[in-house]
Amino acid sequence: MDVEKPAVSHYGLENHGIRNVNFVYWNLASPLLYEEIIRRREGRLAHLGPIVVRTGEHTGRAPRDKYIVREPSSQEKIWWGDINKSMSREQFTALHRRLLAYLQSKDLFIQDCFAGADPRYRIPIRVITETAWHSLFVRNMFKHASRDELRQHVPEFTLICAPNFHSDPEIDGTRSEVFIVIDFGQKLVLVGGTQYAGEIKKSVFTIMNYLLPQQNILSMHCSANVGSRGDAAIFFGLSGTGKTTLSADPARTLIGDDEHGWCDSGIFNIEGGCYAKVIHLSPLAEPDIYQTTRRFGTILENVGFDNNTARIDLDDDSLTENTRASYPISHISNASREGLGDHPKNIIMLTCDAFGVLPPVARLTPEQAVYHFLSGYTAKVAGTEKGVTEPKATFSTCFGAPFMVLPPTVYAGLLQDRIKRHNAAVWLVNTGWSGGPYGVGARMEISYTRAIISAILGGVLDGGPTETEPFFGLAVPTSCPEVPEEVLNPRHTWSDQAAYDAQARKLAGMFAENFSSFGASVSTEVKQAGPRS
């Protein structure tokens, strides 16, 4: 039987300065990568077909170890600071040379693919890894190229991922042995010292957050779906707010679960796969995502695994709460293969308010939408981090600050323009606590949240009666099908309404303090869209 060989680009490794390697695996398909993963003992084959891998001590992103090279083509555009720390060209060159030396004599895996579902704005990327399972991750997460495209593939950006190569802080000027460095001038990304695959995904997203706004396209950290009438919706939200869960709706087509662009013709998925948090995943509450953890091609990071039965345990958090599943979007039965949608009719900003203050749903004006987009609020609760004993406010501008390389007002301005131009309705939806803060009240019932989302997407709340919440000036619907009226007004759910007022003032003050850094760069109307006290 003749075996068709994987397609190899004419643009070879020598163009990246990579020489004297042992063997190069070009664009292997998933079954072949499975064979290499198991042969190299990089992962275990679990019951029903997923691959289970371990990422060692690095079970999440390392935002403090991310750097951007300060170079002429980009240095005047970057939002420099604690999030986007700089590395000199000299430091980057030295680190790059040491990494190239390390790769000599190694086997390497290459995936040539695309970021961006819209053919007009997609970019060809190349990801070079020293492990087979990271190559499978890339194959899951990005758009595949055809065989003809692979032969002619010339990457616009190249990412080299070497988890077993560690930087030396004294030599390389890094904070630790982990590094994620982007050079927009050379169009090159280096990732090392960490097995966590999410660094690959988010590095590519960071690149798109740099490129797309300069083409007047809004890049967004959000999920998206579309109804049978072509009515698209996007869901902003930080981890734990329900962004992935609520967008995976069996009655609607999933466009993508995490990263999108919004151009003049509509929205498009930046990726070709999903990367879902799966700790305590429920087959009843989240059936579509749950079934992906039982599929061939899925990678399960740090999920509980029984060596005797090869079965997984999604409730096992012994390694980390941040257990993850990477799978191609085609594993979701009602997902869009094209990854395209019309202009969103509804924009939903999700927050998990552990202070028990924000209403379960409120309609935002365009100015309020910009205010809450720049704020990017959610809250951590006791037990999620060492030393956190009460709710802790978290503000991540644009709902994805670690990946935003341009000033936040660039993204906010693009969002405001699109909201007004396409008359999109914007909603704030709180999936957090009701009846009191964490430890006193209870988490909002997911059935209520789903009913609210259904009412938003079905147009039930459009033009309906609202009352103005006094602390944030939010327009809160007075009724919603399948949601008790008293739940809609958070103050009414507290037994001690004076305590609610005090908590609301406290949270409003946190919003105002956080937003003060944007004071000189936003309009008076946006400033006035914040808390009233």
Describe this structure in words.
This protein is of the alpha/beta class and about 525 residues long. Among the domains are: about 15-40 and about 60-215, Phosphoenolpyruvate Carboxykinase, domain 1 (3-Layer(aba) Sandwich), CATH 3.40.449; about 345-525, Alpha-Beta Complex (Phosphoenolpyruvate Carboxykinase, domain 3), CATH 3.90.228. It contains 15 helices and 31 strands. The strands form seven sheets. Strands 1, 4, 5, 6, 7, 8, 9, 10 and 11 form a nine-stranded mixed sheet that branches. Strands 12, 13, 14, 15, 16, 22, 23, 24 and 27 form a nine-stranded mixed sheet that branches. A five-stranded mixed sheet has the order 2-3-18-21-17, with helices on one face. A hairpin with a 7-residue loop joins strand 28 and strand 29 (about 440-445). Helix 1 runs antiparallel to helix 3 and helix 9 packs antiparallel against helix 10 (about 410-420). The N and C termini lie far apart (about 75 Å). Residues about 380-390 have low confidence and may be disordered.
- Global structural class: alpha/beta
- How many DSSP helices? 15
Helical content stands at 25-40%
The assembly state of the depicted protein chains is single chain
Q: Remind me, CATH topology of the domain at 13-42 and 60-215?
A: Phosphoenolpyruvate Carboxykinase, domain 1
Supply the CATH superfamily name of the domain at 13-42 and 60-215: Phosphoenolpyruvate Carboxykinase, domain 1
Text of the CATH class of the domain at 13-42 and 60-215: Alpha Beta
Instruction: Tell the overall outline.
Output: globular
Number of strands: 31
